[in-house]
Structure formats: C-alpha cells, structure tokens
Amino acid sequence: MAIRLDKFLAELGVGTRSEVKKYIKAGLVTVDGVPAKKPEQKVEEREAKVCCRGRELTYAAYEYYLFHKPAGCVSATQDKVHKTVMDYLTDTLRKDLFPVGRLDIDTEGLLLITNDGALAHELLSPEKHVAKTYYAKVKGRVTEEDALLFQNGVDIGEEKLTRPAKLVILHEGDLSEVELTITEGRFHQVKRMFEAVGKQVVYLKRLSMGPLTLTEELLPGEYRPLTAREIEALKRHSAEPF
Ligand code: URA
Questions:
Q1: How many C-beta atoms surround the C-beta of residue 161 within 10 A?
Q2: Hey, which of 135, 191, 214 would you mutate to test ligand 1's pocket, going by the most ligand atoms within 8 Å of its Cβ?
Q3: Considering only CA atoms, which residue is closest to atom 4 of ligand 1?
Q4: From the CA of 106, how far away is ligand 1's center (Å)?
Q5: Where in 75-144 does DSSP place strands (E)?
Q6: What distance in angstroms lies between residue 175's CA and the mean position of ligand 1's atoms?
Q7: CATH no. for residue 75?
Q8: Ligand 1 atom index nearest CA of 104
Q9: Pairing state between β 166-171 and 175-182
Q10: Do both 31 and 72 map to the same domain?
Q11: What is the CATH number of the domain that holds 199?
C-alpha cells in the first residue's frame, strides 16, 4: 500500500508529523536513494527503501512484543507517578504500541505489547475466553476444596459467578503455591477469587496467555519480539469461535 512519506516516518517513531516534515524539507530523508522534498510524497510501505539521516527504516504495519513485566510499573502507556511498561521498550521507535490488557502494579509476568488494535480487541473480548495462567503465592492453606469451588465458579461481588477456573496446588502450607488458569479478565480477578475463599494473594505472576508462554530466559524488565509462529498462533487463537 502506498502511504504518505510523513505518515510513514511518524508511524515508525522518527518524530512527530511536524518534525518529520522538517526533516524532509531539510533533505535528510531519501526514498530509493533520491532526496525527498515533499511530505505528501507517496511511498510503497513494503517496498520503498527509505532512509533518514542515512539510517534505513523498515516498515512493519504491526509490531508484537512479549514483555516480562516486573513489579512496580503500571500497564499503561503514560502515567504521572509510576514507570509504565512502555518505558522498558527502548529499542523500538514506534509511538503507537500499547499493552494488551492489564496486570496490577505488583503483578509480574507475561504482557503482550503491540499496535495491532484489532488483535488486541479479539484477545480481550469477554466472548473469546482466552486462557491465562498465573502462578501465585497465597497466604493460607489452599486445598482441593478451593479447587472445587473455583471449578464451579465463585462470587467475587459481581452479578455473575466467575467462569470455571482450574486450580493446581503446587504446595499446600501456611504459604501455599498454586497455578490458576482463568478464562476471563475481570478487575483484580485472581486476588478477588482467593479473597472469596478467605485467602490472600501475596505474589502473582502471569505465566501464559493463550498460546504465548513466558520462558525463563526472559528476565523481569526484558522483552523480545514475538516469532512469526507465535504471531500466527495468536491470530489463529483469537479468530477461533468459542
Ligand atoms: N488478577 C489479579 O488479581 N491481578 C492481576 O494483575 C491479574 C489478574
């Protein structure tokens, strides 16, 4: 598709629309080796070789990153008080990226970051029931009785009970360790489900979301682009009828 040169440059994060216009006017931008003069010049986004200050820019309509969110940052694009998840994405110049869904400030783990709004919408749609698995440390003895309650749905103070969730008890003690898989994304859902059975989550980490899994080599605060296979799996997953 042919798009305006200034739009192409701005979408790649080279600068604001007015800044990139100045760069073009100053002769800092070339298209297929020829200095560009007009911001409205059309470029074939996938084929044109566009350089700004000698650096070649590769256009990708959408970018997808798997981020290991550390505790202490918020799942937002801007925040006046806290560090945001976007502050960690230092290698990409794109300005239109956003986190798909939210993890609480103290929750760690897998967060998808993209600029693909349609995919995000599908993944977050309540009708899709995308599975999310969390590891949690819980104050109190988590038992098979809790697993049964979670399987049947618990009352977290909303109109509807939670959908069936799978609880695996890894360690049963005064501080229990569990894995919980839910297929919804209600506000503070995991913490509220444990509160509903009289227990308190003291540590929470998301391990997976749909076909995406957090692997050990990605440390808190680190991110990596999704592989082509992961993007494909995610699109297939979000398109499946439930
Ligand atoms: N459930 C919670 O309670 N918090 C999160 O961050 C995610 C799921």
A1: 13
A2: 191
A3: 188
A4: 9
A5: 83-84, 98-99, 108-114, 132-139
A6: 18
A7: 3.30.70.580
A8: 6
A9: antiparallel
A10: no
A11: 3.30.70.1560
Number of domains comprising the chain: 3
Pocket of ligand 1 (CB under 6 A): 103-104, 107, 188-191, 204
115 within 8 A of 129, measured Cβ to Cβ:
no
Looking at the structure, tell me whether residues 45 and 85 fall in a common domain: no
Domain of residue 19 covers 2-57
pTM of the model as a whole: 0.84
**Residues labelled catalytic:** 104
Give the span between the Cα atoms of 45 and 184, in whole angstroms: 37
- Residues 6 or more apart whose CB falls under 8 angstroms from that of 71 comprise 105, 106, 107, 108, 220
- The one-digit pLDDT tens for each residue of the chain (242 residues) are 888 999 888 878 788 889 999 999 999 999 999 999 999 999 988 789 999 998 888 777 899 999 999 999 999 999 999 999 999 998 776 788 999 999 999 999 999 999 999 999 999 998 889 999 999 999 999 999 999 999 999 999 999 999 999 999 999 999 999 999 999 999 999 999 999 999 999 999 999 999 999 999 999 999 999 999 999 999 998 877 55
CATH number at residue 49: 3.10.290.10
How far is the centre of ligand 1, averaged over its atoms, from the C-alpha of 187 (Å)?
Answer: 7
